[in-house]
Structure formats: structure tokens, C-alpha cells
Amino acid sequence: MPDAAASGGRKISTGCVLMAKNRDEFTPATKRIIERQARGHCSNPACRRLTHAATSDGHGEINIGEAAHICAAAPGGPRYDDSMAPEERRSPENGIWLCDVHARAVDAKDSKFTVEMLRDWKKQTNRDSWHSIMHNVPFGPGMQAPTPDELRDRLRAAATADLAVFRRTEKWPGTTVALTLKVDHVDEALSTRALANAVTTLDDLILVAPPGMGKTTTLFQVAEGVSEIGNGTPLIVPLGDWATDGDALLTSILKRPAFTGVSETDFRAVARRGKLQPVWPRFQEFSSSTLPAR
Ligand SMILES: [Zn+2]
């Protein structure tokens, strides 16, 4: 057999070329980003082992980690999503740094390892690596889990930052004058500030008014009031936007930049411990004839 290099050809077998073409592999630069975000530790929160070290003689390097795909690189692989573009599949967002053991585990045919679970691992790891750098605390298996109060404060801070994002958009009302509302079964008219005080004890607050009467302004003012008073965590969900992005409601909220440090696990933990009284302003336009039955 002639030497491929000597004859000017390339020493790559056809089989390898075909395989590489069918798989949306990470580039070395992307792998490096994924590894560095996890600070070289396994992203499974129950593991978090360090994945690289010097060899015993100090001349080399031991690596027991790898950049695993959250959604598989090729059809037939675990969690493959055919709606993703190849660039998305190859992006750092679709990668998670894991030790060899857990990389093999999530590669197995085991429905326990869902896309949501791996994204949650990655989000927790990124958040902890950021926290570790910012507050100079050790990162690794022994990293202290945040207390429920810390989680609640983190969620409130994220909701406040999210509100600030809305404030910069066209959706935010131009007026800063607090509106006054007439509420069924309440004699006095209420300001939006008073409603913000009371809203966490209400099951639902349904605003009924013709277009242009200030429903949107009211909801934003109530959300802002709740944030300032600190009696709840206002989460603004324009249902029209959410209905078109195809995500679960919570996933859609947690994708917003302000919630970068908050995982679904955190969110549920806070809610479970009663540290969260979410206000879910329902930006739904009802006409009086289509009001939901109460
Ligand atoms: Zn691991």
C-alpha cells in the first residue's frame, strides 16, 4: 500500500470523514469554553470532581473529563433534537463538562437524563463557578448549597432586574402617576400601590376594561409595587409572547438574561419552602363575554 503522505495524499480514512460529517462536534475552542465555565469540574452537582491534574512526575497532564452534548451530535444519539441547527448543536450552550463516568452515564439510553436535567446541572455549575470567582469561595464538591433565604433573595433580585428590562421596553407605560381602580366588593377606590400590598393575598386579580383604559399600566405598577414593598416576587409574563416561543412557562421565564443565576431546581425549592409568593400577572386580554368562569 503506498504511503499516503509520501504520495501527497491525506492520511484520513473515508470512514472517518463520513463520521465527522454526520456529527455536529464541538471545535477545540468550544470544548475549552465549556471546560473553563465549569472550572474543569464535573457539572453533575452530586459529583463536581476535578477532571484534570498534573501527572505524578509533573511532566504531563491527566484529563478525565469531556465536553458532552446536551442534545446529541447526530441522529439516534441521546436527546437528539432535529429542530436544532448544526451551529446550535455545536455551540457552547449545547455542551456540558462532565467527568468520564458521568459523560458515559448521560450517553446511555436512560430517560432519567433529560435535556432539562442537564441544562439545570449546567446552570447550577455556571452559577456556582461565577459565585466562586466573585466571592472567592472554593468551588467543588464541598461547595455550600445556598440557604432557602439566599435562594429567595437571589430570585427576588433576578425578578427586580427583569422588571428593569421591561422598564426599558415599549411595553412599559409612559405614565408614572399611580392609577386608582374601582374593585368589585370593595367600597373605596384603590390605588395600584394599595393593590400591590394586597395582591399576594388574592387568588386572582382580573382586570376588565375596554382597550386604552390602563390595564397594562395597572399590572406594571402593581408588579413594581410588589418589588419595592418586598411582599412577593413579581414575574411578568406577556402571554402573547410566551404562547409563540414553545417553552413551558417556567422555562420561558428562566431563559431571560436576568434569571441567568437561577435554575429550575432553585425556583421550585424556594416555592416548596413557602419562601416565594409569586405574583403572576396574567397579561391576557379578555373581553367581558369571554371571562373565565369563577
Ligand atoms: Zn462526575
Question: Can you offer a commentary on this structure?
Answer:
This protein has 294 residues and is mostly helical. The protein has 2 domains: 14-135, no CATH class; 148-290, no CATH class. It is built from 11 helices and 8 strands. The protein has helices spanning 14-22, 28-37, 86-89, 100-107, 115-135, 148-167, 192-198, 215-229, 239-245, 249-254, 264-272, and strands at residues 52-54, 61-63, 65-69, 95-99, 180-181, 190-191, 233-234, 278-279. The longest helix is centred in the middle third of the chain and has 21 residues, at 115-135. It starts with 13 loop residues before the first helix and ends in a 15-residue tail after the last strand. It binds zinc ion (ZN). The site of zinc ion has 8 residues, from β4 and α4. Residues 42, 44, 47, 49, 98-99, 101-102 line the site of zinc ion (ZN).
Question: Nutshell version of this structure?
Answer:
With 294 residues, the chain is mainly alpha-helical. It has two domains: 14-135, no CATH class; 148-290, no CATH class.
